[in-house]
Amino acid sequence: MRLGPLAVAAVLLLAVTGCGPDLPAPTPAPEPPVRPAALAGGACQLVDFATFDKVLGDHYTVAAAAKNNKTNTCVVRTEQAAYPEVSVSVTPSKVDTSVFGDVVKPKAAKAVAGVGRSAYLLTTAAKGDLGPILEVGWLTGDARLFIVHWTLPAGADPAAAEPKVVALAKELDKSSL
Q1: Are residues 133 and 24 in contact, defined by beta-carbon separation less than 8 angstroms?
Q2: Model pTM?
Q3: Rounded to an integer, what distance in angstroms lies between the CA atom of residue 25 and that of residue 29?
Q4: N- or C-end of the chain: fewer Cβ atoms within 10 A?
Q5: Nearest CA to 133 among 148, 119, 149, 120?
Q6: Using one digit for the tens of pLDDT, what is the confidence trace for 22-72?
Q7: 44: helix, coil or strand?
Q8: Which domains, and CATH codes, for the chain?
Q9: Residues 173, 146 contacting (CB under 8 angstroms)
């Protein structure tokens, strides 16, 4: 059986226009795995993204560590924006609770119960494009000073965020028992 030129043209037209067997839609490539914060080293070894996500409510996936003298710091961010940003700083200390309260704790800070041997919470108002900053500092049971800064996006409500940053401090303080 010979196909005439009209039949060949019809078959080609059907092939080009996509008529024929339905092919499955391509599936998107899987998201690459998030690299654990601890791999950045330093204070990032204390950071678990899942804990930060659960306690603070944002999806953190980026971490970077730094060290200055005896202080280790970890900065944690989301991939979507510069803020919110969390920094965790840890340094060995010989201060006692009296010195912590008199010297380390900022005058405008309020005391926080249930975190370390002594702790404070300081809220700084938003300025310009920068949102409010919440800081929890505490003296741990194993003689270290911890300070957590949580810089919120502009327009965020610091009062609603205060219990969250204190809850994060309590989670991080478990590492110092």
Answers
A1: no
A2: 0.80
A3: 12
A4: N
A5: 149
A6: 667 777 777 778 889 999 999 999 999 999 999 999 999 999 999 999 999
A7: helix
A8: 37-176 (2.60.120)
A9: yes
